[in-house]
Amino acid sequence: MKEKLKNIFFKFWYWYLSFIDKNSDIIFMNYGYSKDNFKIELEETDEKNRYSIQLYHLVATGVDIKGKDILEIGCGRGGGLSYINRYLSPNFVTGVDLNKKAINFCNKKYSTDRIKFLQANAQKLNFQKDSFDAVINIESSHRYSRIDLFIEEVYRILKPGGFFLFADFGDSMEIEKLKTQFVKSNLKIVRFENITDNVIEALKLATPEREKLIREILPKFFQNLGRNFAATEGTTTYNKFLTREFEYVFYALMK
Fold first, then answer.
1. Which of 60, 63, 75 is nearest to 116 (CA)?
2. What order do you get walking across the sheet with 115-119 strand by strand?
3. Smaller CB count within 10 Å for the chain: N or C?
4. Which CATH architecture does the domain made up of 2-254 adopt?
5. Are 127 and 100 in contact (CB under 8 A)?
6. Residues facing 253 on adjacent strands
7. 84-104 pLDDT per residue, tens
8. Cβ pair 185, 214 in contact under 8 A
9. pTM (2 decimals)?
10. pLDDT tens for each residue of 155-191
């Protein structure tokens, strides 16, 4: 029942954002990252998305991606890939997402000669073998029905010596299963961090702004669900990180 409710909420959320977000303010939906409140340098227009951007910065700088061809799987509303394109100097970036409304939004907001967005299924990607120097996946894979198929696809489309840069959360069994799938895939783990504490720090710091946004854009009967979705401080989702029922991990892997 909970999963069904979550899926209904996701569908409603994307529809509602396309309806209400006239100024394209909501472009990130990850939990964020903070370490001892250290702040990366950002332009003023990016400041409101600081903690979500810092998660992208951590993951995308797991290796040097300057001058590389990058694919983000599960790009959502494109804020993360836009940050990578503007700040980290890749050659070309491509974003894919299953949600058509999200892809339409991204193509209208971001498309240039160095970035494009396509609708695609993470478990069956329409790219040739050895296509990308790096594949990025942030806080998306926990909703995939077949994580093994997803990782197989990542391995297939990565160039030899290419990198898979990954961050997501789950319970202890899901995190262990994920590690097993990575080992089976023949991807070499070159970096691993449990960043649960850093995500909790980011959630605390981001809570006031997220609470304000929830009250502004969601009907009252959806606000508690919205808070849990955003994992604001004190919610069930936030507390699962606090008690380590959920853990958040970051991997950099090489083909």
1. 75
2. 115-119, 92-97, 69-73, 132-138, 158-170, 247-254, 188-194
3. N
4. 3-Layer(aba) Sandwich (3.40)
5. no
6. 164, 189
7. 999 999 999 999 999 888 899
8. no
9. 0.93
10. 999 999 999 999 999 999 999 999 999 999 999 999 9
